[in-house]
Amino acid sequence: MARLNELNLIDALEGLKTGRFTSTELVTACYEQIEQFDPVVKAFVTFTKERALEQAKEADDLIQKEGGKAFEKKPLLGIPYACKDNFSTTGIETTASSNILKGYFPPYESTVTTRVNEAGGIMLGKTNMDAFAHGSSTETSDFFKTLNPWDISRVPGGSSGGSAVAVASDMCIFALGSETAGSIRGPAAWCGVTGMKPTYGRVSRYGVIAMASSTDSPGPLTKTVDDAAYVLEIIAGKDPFDATTSPKSVPEYSGFIKDFDLKGFKIGRPRSYFEIDLEDEVREIVESAVKKYEELGAEIVDMDLLDPKYSIAVYTILQRSEVSSNLARLDGIRYGQNREAFGMEARKRMMLGAYTLSAGYYDAYYSKAQKVRTLIIEDFNEAYKKVDLVIGPTMPSIALKLGESDNSPMFGELMDVLAEPSAIAGLPGISINAGFSRGMPVGVQLIGQQLTEGNVMGVAKVFQQNTDFHLNRPVIKSSE
Amino acid sequence: MSELIITKEQVKRIAHLCKLQLTEAELEKFSQMFTQTLAVIDVLNELDTSDVPETYQVTGLGNVFQEDVEQKGTLTQEEVLKNAKNKKRGLIVTKGVFDR
């Protein structure tokens, strides 16, 4: 029998509902795993054990009193989760892994964690990330580096690296992350878990420490697509505190993908996504995933999309511009430390952003980038007249070795090249494990039109129903 | 297109705009990094955008209003001030802005 912490969300809920085990046992199992392996992979920056165990006790009492009925009002009752440190959590230190926010205890709670907590979810702790989400390796955390559980000489990807590692290492049942361009899908791919980046505006940004406000999208990192659908259903939806959230009602994703049928589904295979500099084995694994879909009844359509190199440039300008504006508010007066505490990466991004927004350069950079963004969106719109979804590699390589990115000022942007076009256009995308290269997981991503999360997850689920890559777990070896 | 170079002087000015203090070595480093990054960004000039409008946000939503009712759940003064280091009589103390 699987140890409790190894359960996926759907199975953990079933166990709690049927009284096979208690929330206290489940939470305790997660902490045992954390205490054994977190000193090696360092996924967490803050723990909330005492509070979590109290909440588990309360959950157990409620389950005892109301039985299965308790889950109707609280669909995540008693489920332990890990939370990226850029979600504001009332009274719990929230730093976005930055020194400048060290000692900051938010007086309010993000909408996403509010919804998860009201649904009965139990937070185990806050996870490490690239400081302010500025990066794709979790190496730019101001505190420490998180290591990849599949090979601790490698990075987990980022910026939601701590959350991806917590899921991959079975330290939690699911985790929350956020993506601006690649920060959910990238670490999910490199750690071999499921990472769902929703449509921009599908999930509220309220209380999430801002990176680039026009693309920031919170979402779940999970053990299966079913789990992602279940969590997304809870966190998605209109929020009066975030005017960019969609007023459209949230579908019942779990039900929608239950018996998902691929027949008649057209999956586009953009040539430009396979022509970039991919590792050979990554290409082979993603091609075999494409073939698998063909076998399973989908129609594969070779197609053209704009070269993703334009997205690197657009994304770099937009993101740095928005960062310079968002980080201007950190003055150390109302909260946090003074601006001298900013790390190298934040300084770099803020300054280039201030430059691209400054008088005389605005038209050449910021305005130009927003125009090319229009072209990228139109390009996708044309594509979705012919296909239902787009498939491609999530990352061009397997997880890099620690330190490999040190001398590349645009490392993150280059690594996230295959996530950037869809992020710029606000499209939903999922990364699932499609195989292994040199013992490291390789992700394949599926990208849909805005607000078609159901299709994206449905198609991803069919893959997991017919393969077992997502069931593999790393054997964590401590360093000698 | 000739290579665009961000000089140390320019970096100094940007740092000032961002209220950041840089060492001489950092000025040098950022000058090189920014020059490198702008060279990559330059690829956008391959695309003709003369008739293309900008997209500032992708939701398609416009004029999102809320009902004009009393907002519940605002923070108390105590909560708002909790994280400020320097406060006096329920206010945050800052450096003078007008009288310098």
Automatic annotation (TrEMBL), chain A:
GO terms for biological process: translation. Allows the formation of correctly charged Gln-tRNA(Gln) through the transamidation of misacylated Glu-tRNA(Gln) in organisms which lack glutaminyl-tRNA synthetase. The reaction takes place in the presence of glutamine and ATP through an activated gamma-phospho-Glu-tRNA(Gln). NCBIfam families: gatA. The gene is gatA. PANTHER family: GLUTAMYL-TRNA(GLN) AMIDOTRANSFERASE SUBUNIT A, MITOCHONDRIAL, TRANSAMIDASE. It catalyses: L-glutamyl-tRNA(Gln) + L-glutamine + ATP + H2O = L-glutaminyl-tRNA(Gln) + L-glutamate + ADP + phosphate + H(+). It is an enzyme of class 6 (ligase). The active site is at residues 84, 159, 183. This is Glutamyl-tRNA(Gln) amidotransferase subunit A. Pfam families: Amidase (PF01425). Belongs to the amidase family. GatA subfamily. GO terms for cellular component: glutamyl-tRNA(Gln) amidotransferase complex. Transmembrane segments: none annotated. InterPro entries: Amidase (IPR000120), Amidase_CS (IPR020556), Amidase_dom (IPR023631), AS_sf (IPR036928), GatA (IPR004412). Keywords: ATP-binding, Hydrolase, Ligase, Nucleotide-binding, Protein biosynthesis, Transferase. SUPFAM superfamilies: Amidase signature (AS) enzymes. Its EC number is 6.3.5.7. Heterotrimer of A, B and C subunits. Residues 25-456 form the Amidase domain. PROSITE patterns: AMIDASES. One of its GO terms (molecular function) is glutaminyl-tRNA synthase (glutamine-hydrolyzing) activity.
TrEMBL record, chain B:
It catalyses: L-aspartyl-tRNA(Asn) + L-glutamine + ATP + H2O = L-asparaginyl-tRNA(Asn) + L-glutamate + ADP + phosphate + 2 H(+); L-glutamyl-tRNA(Gln) + L-glutamine + ATP + H2O = L-glutaminyl-tRNA(Gln) + L-glutamate + ADP + phosphate + H(+). Its EC number is 6.3.5.-. It is an enzyme of class 6 (ligase). One of its GO terms (molecular function) is ATP binding. SUPFAM superfamilies: Glu-tRNAGln amidotransferase C subunit. It holds the Pfam family GatC. Keywords: ATP-binding, Ligase, Nucleotide-binding, Protein biosynthesis. GO terms for biological process: regulation of translational fidelity; translation. Belongs to the GatC family. Allows the formation of correctly charged Asn-tRNA(Asn) or Gln-tRNA(Gln) through the transamidation of misacylated Asp-tRNA(Asn) or Glu-tRNA(Gln) in organisms which lack either or both of asparaginyl-tRNA or glutaminyl-tRNA synthetases. The reaction takes place in the presence of glutamine and ATP through an activated phospho-Asp-tRNA(Asn) or phospho-Glu-tRNA(Gln). Heterotrimer of A, B and C subunits. This is Aspartyl/glutamyl-tRNA(Asn/Gln) amidotransferase subunit C. The gene is gatC.
